[in-house]
Design brief:
Blueprint (H helix, E strand, L loop, with lengths): L1 E4 L4 E6 L6 E2 L4 E7 L2 E6 L4 E6 L6 E2 L4 E5 L1
Antiparallel strand pairs: 1-8, 2-4, 2-7, 3-6, 4-5, 6-8
Length: 70
């Protein structure tokens, strides 16, 4: 299982994937607002989304897992 983590502290402003969806390396999975900037969180590898662990409006910490892939 591969885990996608946020690189910054912030608030989730968009979730771009759902369970069962295929993603490729570099695909954005969520967008986080931090210090008034929107930062896309990209998958580092391809796979199938198993779980999305955040929703729009959630506060996230640096290194928090947002998506799990298989």
């Amino acid at each position: 299982m591969f885990k996608v983590e946020t690189p910054v502290v912030g608030r989730v402003v968009a979730v771009g994937v759902r369970a069962g969806q295929r993603v490729e390396a570099g695909d954005p999975v969520v967008k986080v607002e931090s210090m008034k900037m929107e930062i896309p969180v990209e998958s580092e590898r391809g796979g199938i989304v198993v779980r999305v662990l955040v929703a729009e409006g959630d506060e996230v910490d640096e290194g928090q897992i947002v998506v799990e892939l298989e």
